[in-house]
Queue: 4 jobs
Job 1
Amino acid sequence: MISFGTTLKDLIESYNIEILEELIDRITISQNSSDLRIMPDGTFEYKGVKVLYYIAKAFYTKKIGDAPSSLNKVHLVWCRTLEEQKARGTFAQYSVTNRKNGTYHYEFNDGVVEHQKLLVCQNCLQQFYHDRHKPIDYEEFFNKD
């Protein structure tokens, strides 16, 4: 019998329930995590789920009319930009997500947190689609083997 003082965490542990996340909204993980894999096509998988990389924080305050082009980009594949970030030692600031609608958990320096539209890195588009200007179809991308 379940008591009303039981937390969800206690229930999960006591009944040995495995939680399968349908949506990874934002997880910051170590680049050395064994749960993260770079696939042969350059895409990323986290615990067997295809994910995207992005920096979830802006380095300035939210302004009315901020265009997605002025914000951080989303990465589909291990591209030249990510390689440069790793070489600089700034790779740890990236998070992963499997959101398919083009908007992502995003935080500005003034504390404003929202789901923000972000554009895809042009290096990723060039590498994955061989076209820097191809609009991404997230459903197609996530379902492509």
Job 2
Amino acid sequence: MNKIFILFFLLLIIACQTVTYIPPYTSVSTIDLTKYSREGFLITPYKYDADYESVGYIFVETMPEANLVTLEKTEQAGHAENAKTEWQVDKMSIDKIIDSIHQKALQMGANAIIDFKIEQTTKNYSVGRMSPLTIQGFTISGFAIKRLGAFK
């Protein structure tokens, strides 16, 4: 039993790499909502204090498409063909996702979305004998309202 533990421990040490440096990192992201404001449509993470009619809650979850792509094939005499593959995951446009929640709110008769939230979503997929695939998408939600008064 001790030999197995020691062997496992040695393999663990060999397999792990020691991190000795983490470079600085700065990321700046923006979401431009001005095109909706120009239409008189309000999107805000805050409550709306003026008069309004409740329209409904909207929840959008979006995940990108992923395709298993063959990078190179090798043939060995008398053996099955081996192929090196990798998953290619499409890029997602946050603007298109916001457009979808905006369009749904308009269809429902709303002219505003309050309590607007964007969260990153992670899904894990079991893909046979390959390592599990993790894909990141987005969840967007908000409460659709119809502002009353000057915004009729």
Job 3
Amino acid sequence: MNENPGKGKSIIVTVTDEALGNIHQLADKLTKKGMNIKRVLPITGIISGFYSSSLSNIRKIKGVKNAEDEASAQF
């Protein structure tokens, strides 16, 4: 997993309950689709990272419940 964001926007992928046991394999699929994975959180079913294409491409992958832009706070 690469800590360098490179290109793309910061996104959060929520994993379906059925895919929780295979979250690392799903992360590998997301990487092959062009996502730069930052973190995989198996307990919460979250994969975070960076992606430069349409989120609809990520949402179509089996095991993905949702994909959205990561919210950030600025002070």
Job 4
Amino acid sequence: MRRFVLLATLLLAGCSWFASPPPRSYTRPAATEEQLSNDIAVCKEAARAVQQRDAEISQDINSRSQIAEPDQYFDPQLTQNMNAFGSRTAYQDMVSDCMNARGYGEAEN
């Protein structure tokens, strides 16, 4: 029973961790809207390609490992939510790094 109460408490407290961060906006002196739009598209495509590659690697690793017993102490939905949040955050960080490499800075909102 204690495990259930602890897990429920962690789930409720963790909900705020999984809120999507607001989208970032970028600026660069003398950059046109068209140039900004094209650069963001290129950076997003590069980030999606990296995530796809990483997902394929993870899937390959998971298909090769054999787990005798599933872990009874972790909620699969919680694990899935945590992985999704990490994936969204990593995607935004990759796009931001790419935009920074192209000379953009994050615009202050």
